[in-house]
Write a structure and sequence with these properties.
The protein has about 270 residues and is an alpha+beta fold. The chain folds into two domains: about 160 residues, no CATH class; about 90 residues, 2-Layer Sandwich (Alpha-Beta Plaits). Helices cover about 70% and strands about 10% of the residues. Strands 2-3-1-4 form a four-stranded antiparallel sheet. The longest helix has about 45 residues. The radius of gyration is 31 Å and the shape is elongated.
């Protein structure tokens, strides 16, 4: 029971770091997936005085993925109820051409501005509707959400690292007498501190395995999957190979680095 208590604090601290890190990864993947959906639904309307070739439009800016000419028939039908057929045909000829431009990805506000300027450089294009106000608001909200999650992860990391350092120092003080005796017999500093490194490595393994189990459960949870379906995205919540290797590497690195700093600090004090 005492052994479990000795490991509990360090394992919980490491779990906090791993959860905040995975939460950031999920948020980043969600935002990127949502941007793909937005890119599929977002388009720019260009009004031209003459018909433009598809290749001509694509050459204007590399962000343009496709161009589709919008039919003016619905507009003409509303205007031509009392018009002669000859006038209707004339109207079709003099009406400007409307093009719906699909983009390769969801653009930044800077890319929208650049696209607008490039389109207007074409002498045939007289007007561009890029819905910039709505786009900028959506993009800023996505960026804000990502930054908030990143800030939360950093705060958790800093606070938890301080807690881990404190816990490792407590363990060092508990074994200080044994380490001093080993030092009198000429044991190297790293050998004297073996118990501290063993604690760090074992707890990193325990935290990684627990995190693996929790994330696997969450990635297959109907409730969690339903939340992503409600916003129309599908992402990899937890990759059992890549993500596990990442959290294992992070947990091991933090534990060993902090244990090393404490050992070196103890040497300086001596």
């Amino acid at each position: 029971m005492k052994s479990v208590k000795n490991h509990f604090s360090l394992v919980i601290a490491l779990l906090s770091i791993l959860f905040s890190m995975q939460a950031y990864l999920i948020a980043e993947r969600s935002i990127e997936a949502y941007k793909v959906n937005l890119a599929n639904n977002y388009s720019v309307i260009a009004v031209s005085t003459k018909e433009l070739q598809h290749s001509e439009i694509l050459a204007i800016n590399s962000i343009i993925a496709a161009a589709k000419e919008l039919s003016p028939d619905s507009v003409i039908d509303r205007l031509s109820s009392d018009m002669k057929s000859s006038n209707v045909e004339l109207l079709k000829l003099i009406m400007p051409k409307f093009y719906k431009l699909s983009l390769t990805h969801y653009p930044t506000p800077g890319e929208v501005k650049s696209l607008r300027n490039d389109l207007l450089k074409n002498s045939s294009i007289k007007k561009v509707e890029d819905f910039s106000h709505t786009h900028d608001t959506t993009y800023k909200l996505l960026t804000l959400f990502k930054n908030v999650v990143a800030l939360f992860a950093v705060v958790v990391l800093v606070v938890t690292v301080l807690l881990i350092i404190k816990e490792l120092r407590i363990w060092q003080y508990k074994h200080n007498e044994r380490m001093s005796i080993m030092g009198l017999f000429g044991a190297a500093l790293w050998l004297r501190s073996a118990v501290l490194f063993r604690l760090a490595i074992v707890d990193a393994l325990i935290a990684s395995v627990l995190a693996f189990g929790v994330f696997v459960y969450l990635s297959s949870s109907p409730f969690v999957l339903e939340q992503f379906n409600n916003i129309g995205i599908s992402i990899v919540i937890f990759d059992q190979v890549d993500d596990f290797m990442l959290i294992l590497g992070v947990a091991m690195s933090i534990s060993i680095i902090l244990a090393s700093l404490i050992v070196l600090g103890h040497k300086e004090e001596a």
